[in-house]
Design goal:
heterodimer; A: 115 residues; mainly beta; B: 120 residues
C-alpha cells in the first residue's frame, strides 16, 4: 500500500518570505513523487516530479522540492512567495512497482500568501 | 504540451436523470485515463482507471453500474453518472497519461479542468 501525508491543512506566509509545504510518503518500493497545484474550481496543474537522479527537483513558477529518502519526505519550497501562489497544493506518490500506475494523493495543503 | 479538456465545466441536473462528462486529450494519445472525485476542501479520490479498448477498473466502493466509464478511443473517455442523486454532487476531475506511442512514458498525469456536477 502507498500513502501520502500532508501534515498541515494550511500554511500562511508573507509575500517575499520563503515557503515550505510539507509532504511525507510511504511506499513499499521506490517512489515516484509529484506536486500539483489547484486553483479554485480548476483541475490540477503539474508543478514538478521526482523520478530518479538529483534529489533536488526544480519545477514550474520557481518551486522546487527535495527528495529525502531517509526521512521519506518530499517538501515543496519556494525562496520568495507571491500572493498569486495562494492555492491548494497536493503531493502525490506512485510506487514504481505499482502495476496499476495509480497516484495516491495527500489531503492537500492550502497556501495563503499575504501581501 | 499535454492538454486535457473536460466538457461540460458545470452541469446542473435533476435527481434521477443521467449526466455524461467527457474527457479529451487534445494533443496526445492517452492509453490510460483516470477519473477522480473531489469533495469540498478534500483531496482527490480515485474512482476508476480506464484503459482504451477495455473495461474500466473501479476502486473499492465505487458502483460500476452507477458510474459508467467508456474509453472508446485514445483521446476520449466518458463518465456517465446514471440516476443521479444529490449525494452525487461533486467536482469530477479526469486525468490522462501518455501512451508509449506518444514518446517516452513520463509517468505524469495531465489533469482536466474538472466538472462541477450539482444534482437538485
Amino acid at each position: 500500500a502507498q500513502s501520502v501525508a500532508q501534515p498541515e491543512d494550511q500554511v500562511n506566509v508573507a509575500e517575499g518570505n520563503p515557503l515550505t509545504v510539507k509532504c511525507t510518503y510511504s511506499v513499499s518500493g521506490n517512489p515516484y513523487l509529484f506536486w500539483y497545484v489547484q486553483y479554485p474550481n480548476r483541475g490540477l496543474q503539474f508543478l514538478l516530479k521526482y523520478i530518479t537522479g538529483d534529489n533536488l527537483v526544480k519545477g514550474s513558477y520557481g518551486f522546487e522540492a527535495e527528495f529525502n529518502k531517509s526521512q521519506t519526505s518530499f517538501h515543496l519550497k519556494k525562496p520568495s512567495a507571491l500572493v498569486s501562489d495562494s492555492a491548494l497544493y497536493f503531493c502525490a506518490v506512485r510506487d514504481r512497482n505499482n502495476a496499476g500506475n495509480m497516484l495516491t494523493f495527500g489531503g492537500g495543503t492550502r497556501l495563503m500568501v499575504k501581501p | 504540451g499535454a492538454v486535457v479538456s473536460q466538457h461540460p465545466s458545470r452541469v446542473i441536473c435533476k435527481s434521477g436523470t443521467s449526466v455524461k462528462i467527457e474527457c479529451r486529450s487534445l494533443d496526445f494519445q492517452a492509453t490510460t485515463m483516470f477519473w477522480y472525485r473531489q469533495f469540498p476542501k478534500q483531496s482527490l479520490m480515485l474512482m476508476a482507471t480506464s484503459n482504451e479498448g477495455s473495461k474500466a477498473t473501479y476502486e473499492q466502493g465505487v458502483e460500476k453500474d452507477k458510474f459508467l466509464i467508456n474509453h472508446a478511443s485514445l483521446t476520449l473517455s466518458t463518465l456517465t453518472v446514471t440516476s443521479a442523486h444529490p449525494e452525487d454532487s461533486s467536482f469530477y476531475i479526469c486525468s490522462a497519461r501518455k501512451g508509449r506511442t506518444s514518446g517516452a512514458v513520463t509517468y505524469e498525469q495531465y489533469f482536466g479542468p474538472g466538472t462541477r456536477l450539482t444534482v437538485t
